[in-house]
Amino acid sequence: MALLSLGINHLTAPVDIREKVAFAPEQMTRALHELQDIPAVNESVIVSTCNRTEIYCDASSDCAEVITHWLTAHHGIGENSLSPYIYQHSDQEVARHLFRVASGLDSMVLGEPQILGQLKNSYDLARGDNAINSILDRLFQHSFSVAKRVRTDTEIGTNPVSVAFTAVSLSKQIFGNLDELHALLIGAGETIELVSRHLQSQQIGSMTIANRSVERARALADQIGADAIQINAVPEQLARADIVISSTASQLPILGKGAIESALKQRKHRPMFMVDLAVPRDIEPEAGTLQDIYLYTVDDLKSVVDENLRGRELAAEAAQEIVNLEVTMFDRWLRTHQSADQIRQLRDGAELIRQQAVEKALAQISQAADPERAIQRLASEITNKLMHKPTMEMRKALQDGDEDRVQLLKSLITPD
User: Fold this and answer.
1) Is 50 known to be catalytic?
2) How far apart are the first and last CA of the chain?
């Protein structure tokens, strides 16, 4: 067995590469089934967020190349276009990487808690599709425990910072007070919910939530005192919006340059602040060339994010110490788990020898053989079969002058 993880993230790949290998929620089940169909893959989990796409596997052999080929083929892209950006980890380093991800140490926003919920969703989906067994179950459960300990024992979560929070902070830097402004939020998932609550805390004048499911949009809107519309009504509402923040799972852009240009004319070129938090992108990049449009993607927020991280850097050092300790503990469990399989195979082999010898002795007794003689033959046969390979190893160790191995073999057959 071998633990393997591979993927890309915001540190290794720009958004235009990340969006090519992102998995939409409705693609996950089929993707997991395809992964499980790879002969060497025993267990698998796919993690796909705005900032990363990662695959975690327990495999019977090193199958990184096979999985990379599957990933690129699944998304219809060439391996050469992805290879400069992809990273991989094996065995103990898989645990270290996942523990860092779960704790927010590998996030664009250091210590952000949102990734933990996304990991749990990925784990639940894989478990529901029977793609997880004992190894990845233990690995992910351990990562959740590590994340909780890091958040409890360090100051990593002080002064909450996330991409959602950063987007709202940037809008304040551009506009100052938000109390007379209108925000149009596209999507109704966790990220948009966070954005809406941050805007609410900054006393935004009004908000509209747009989503494919107007019921889901209304459920969020009712909580924060906003309006709810269906996503196809966004172009009509765009001219009213001073702030537009979008985060959906759409595979195609929702807002094009033309619709935004029309809205600007109606606004008499009053500026519009737009943040595209989606991967693949919801807003056509060309919209950023329009005068009076301030368009930011998740990558553009990086510089703003950096300013909010300085207070967390010392906490991150303490968090890394926790991660290192927990990796050692997980590795110890993994070795014990794997050794249990080896010990079970050893004992199964000995049990087979015993069963065969007993069946032979019983057959001899049933044919009126002397019971005492049959028992003697039974004991002799078991001893000979059990001692055959250790005896061969002992001879070889003596010939090699390997005294440590000689003493080890002796200890195996020394009576208690």
Assistant:
1) yes
2) 34
Q: How many CB atoms lie within 10 A of CB 179?
A: 11
Q: Which of 121, 167, 134, 109 is nearest to 312 (CA)?
A: 109
Q: How far apart are CA 13 and CA 2, in angstroms?
A: 26
- Spatial neighbors of 102 by CB under 8 A, at least 6 apart, are 115, 116, 119, 143, 144, 146, 147
Residue whose pair of structure tokens reads 């990562």 in the numeric block: 143
Alpha-carbon torsion, ordered 147, 152, 154, 159, to 10 deg: 90
The pLDDT tens digits for 308-339 are 677 788 889 999 999 999 999 999 898 887 76
* Cα separation, 323 vs 401, whole angstroms: 43
Q: What is the arithmetic mean of pLDDT over 381-404? A: 78
What is the edge-to-edge ordering of all strands in the sheet holding 41-48? 41-48, 52-59, 2-9, 87-90
Q: Is 112:104 a contact under the CB 8 Å cutoff?
A: yes
**pLDDT given for residue 104 in this prediction:** 93
Alpha-carbon distances, residue 237 vs 209, 243, 263, 266, 305 (angstroms)? 11, 12, 9, 11, 30
Distant-in-sequence, close-in-space partners of 365: CB < 8 Å, separation ≥ 6:
371, 374
The active-site residue, picked from 3, 6, 45, 50, is 50
Structural domains present in the chain:
2-157 (3.30.460.30), 163-305 (3.40.50.720), 337-412 (no CATH)
Nearest to 1 by CA among 64, 86, 59: 59
Q: What's the pTM value of the predicted model, to 2 decimals? A: 0.66
329: which 2 tokens? 């503990």
Q: Is the peptide bond before 280 cis (omega within 30 degrees of 0)?
A: yes
Q: Alpha helix locations (H) across 129-256?
A: 134-153, 163-175, 190-201, 214-224, 234-237
Please state, in angstroms and rounded to a whole number, the distance separating the CA atoms of residues 334 and 340: 10
Q: Which H/E stretch holds residue 272?
A: strand 272-276
**Alpha-helical regions (H) of 76-162:** 79-82, 92-102, 114-128, 134-153
Place of tokens 């109606």: 266
Q: How does residue 351 score in pLDDT terms, banded at 50, 70 and 90? A: confident
Residue 364 has pLDDT above 80, yes or no: no
For all residues of the chain together, what is the average pLDDT?
A: 89
- Tell me the pLDDT band of 410, cut-offs 50, 70 and 90: confident
Element (H, E) at 275: strand 272-276
